[in-house]
Amino acid sequence: MTLTPAQIEALVRANADALGLRLTPEQMPGVLRYVALAADMAALVDGLPLGRDDEGANVFVPVAPAARE
Amino acid sequence: MKPCTLDAVTIAAEVRAGRLRASDAVDSCLARIAATDDRVNAFTTVLDTRARARALMVDSKPDRHTLPLAGVPFAVKNLFDIAGLPTLAGSKIERDAPAAARDALLVRRLEAAGAILVGALNMDEYAYGFTTENSHYGATCNPHDLARTAGGSSGGSAAAISAGQVPLTLGSDTNGSIRVPASLCGCFGLKPTFGRLPRTGTYPFVASLDHLGPFARSVRDLALCYDLMQGWCAEDPGCAPRAAEPVSAVLDDIDLGGLRLATLGGWWREMADADALAAVSLVREALGVTRDIELPEVARARAAAFLITNAEGANLHLPDLRTRADDFEPLSRDRFLAGALLPAGWVQQAQRVRRRFAHEVAQVFDTVDVLLAPATPCVAPLLGTEWLSLGTQRLPARPSLGLLAQPLSCIGLPVVTVPVWNAQSSAPHLPLGVQVIAAPWREDLALRVAAALAREPWCRAPIAPLA
Can you tell me the distance from the alpha carbon of B330 to that of B384, in angstroms, rounded to the nearest whole number? Predict the structure, then answer.
């Protein structure tokens, strides 16, 4: 799925509002460029069909009491 | 011979035997730093007083003949905690942070073995970069050509080795930050398996991808340093609960007859220029390798690493991005801001692709023991370079220096970077590194192959004259 420049800008403005990030006019062109690049990367990872057993790599490790070094 | 020109194993042997004082080894390195660092800019802090005091302690220790790194000066990327100093991680923002209460765990482990910390080293801000062009602390220059980048983000760690300032340094590698500077500065570097070395007491970049590791001028130094740093630590949730598996002894066995070796094709040919391919050819020929292997879905794995890095790295700094974004490095500020805004679905999909890629590559390692690939697409670019040409592709230079490293750290494979000289036609005075890659937890195999290569006259880590 490719996003248009208008969709990228809408995403940036909505998510910045949701996170409380105030983007300045000076920052905005760079931010749009990098989010567009990330969208290209997202299209690549989204293009790989994954199944039920394709678990994410971010696995939680329970914390046990342990002696500190 | 000046002590600063010796490798760590030699310095330690001399100190243990009483032929060299730790104080003289430290003074030699401090003098070399003073004579060269105005041009190289590898160090952000030099710890003269601490290092000299520590050297006197080592010299007066009755058991110094038992210390594996007796009197060996070393330095660390400035994301390692050093007691009494704020941990900068290359930033201006962290200057205001409280001083570290104690040294990072790996610093403590090396000093327990007799090594002596002499300073902190320059890096890209928060490790987000491959060139150590740091606006707050200045760029680190490549000792072999001061007009060129040392690579990054552990640029100071590689440059200090190649400038002959210290024989041993530590750095970190999230997407290539040990391998890229080792390649461009012409020294040896080890990025161990993800989870092998505890990161306790270091400033994270992307916790789910960060690795720590050593740089050195010899393979035996890499192996010894790595052995002394191994061991699980409960304080790092990313550290695997495994017993130490020392590797120094296996370096004596450099008969590679039983090992299955292959060169990586596909992505690693397409994203490499003629110099990088020539370096791999030299290694391939020396090892008698005839087999090529292509890994599946490399572009997607690289994309996964990109997204995880961007989102997780940015989230760590969200409070500062909200309140003082313009205090970030200009080269990375907008990337951090962008990373904070990525939809969760993109990042979670990236984590699943990462796991799938790891499974695919594990199957490849059923048929091969060690893979070879260039570490960087080209030799060190001039500082300030904006674009790279690779075949018909025109790519942004700074992120593209990590193209050949990123898919491998994405799945945590151990990699030794070996420096190759005299293969590059476009810049014969510059090195280019080759990655020696093994399956997870098989650092021993990568180091054995690196040790075999280090017998070749073109595989070495010379000290730049900097006359």
Answer: 13
CA distance linking residue B13 with residue B6, whole number of Å: 11
- B466 occurs within a structural domain: no
What is the model's pLDDT at position B65? 95
pLDDT digits (tens, 9 = 90+) for B82-109: 999 999 999 999 999 999 999 999 999 9
b/e code B437-456 from CB counts within 10 Å (16+ = b): bbbbbbbbbbbbbbbbbbeb
Rounded Cα distance, B378 and B388, in Å: 9
Reported ipTM exceeds the 0.90 cut: yes
DSSP B462: P
| CATH for B216 | 3.90.1300.10
Q: For residue B60, report the phi and psi dihedrals to the nearest 5 degrees.
A: -95, 0
* Residues of A in Cβ contact (< 8 Å) with B350: 41-42, 45
Q: DSSP secondary-structure letter at B3?
A: G
The torsion region of residue B149 among left (phi > 0), alpha (psi -120 to 50) and beta comes to beta
Residue B38 predicted with pLDDT over 90: yes
Whether A63 has a pLDDT exceeding 90, the answer reads no
Length of chain B: 467
If you ran DSSP here, which 8-state letter would residue B376 be given? S
Task: Give bridge partners of residue B388 from the DSSP assignment.
Answer: B395
Assess if residue B460 is contained within a domain. no
Task: Tell me whether strands B370-374 and B292-293 are parallel, antiparallel or unpaired.
Answer: unpaired
Closest chain B residue to A22, measured at CA: B322
Secondary structure E strands in B249-398: 261-264, 292-293, 370-374, 387-390, 393-396
For residue B464, being part of any structural domain is answered with no
Q: If DSSP codes are grouped into helix, strand and coil, which group holds residue B48?
A: helix
- The pLDDT value given to residue A67: 52
Contacts of A27 in chain B (CB under 8 A): 325, 333-334, 337
Q: What is the total count of domains within chain B?
A: 1
Condensed to tens digits (0 to 9), the pLDDT of residues B256-280 reads 888 999 999 999 999 999 999 999 9
In a domain, B102, yes or no: yes
Structural domain of B248: 3-453
Instruction: Report DSSP state, residue B219.
Output: H
Of A44, A57, A66, the CB nearest to B351: A57
Percentage, residues of chain B above pLDDT 70: 100
- By C-alpha distance, the chain A residue nearest B108 is A69
Q: Which of residues 163-202 of B touch A (CB under 8 A)?
A: 200
CA B344 to chain centre: 30
Using a CB–CB cutoff of 8 Å, tell me whether B325 touches chain A: yes
SS (H, E, C) B334-349: HHHHHHHCCCHHHHHH
Cβ neighbour number for residue B34 with a 10 Å cutoff? 13
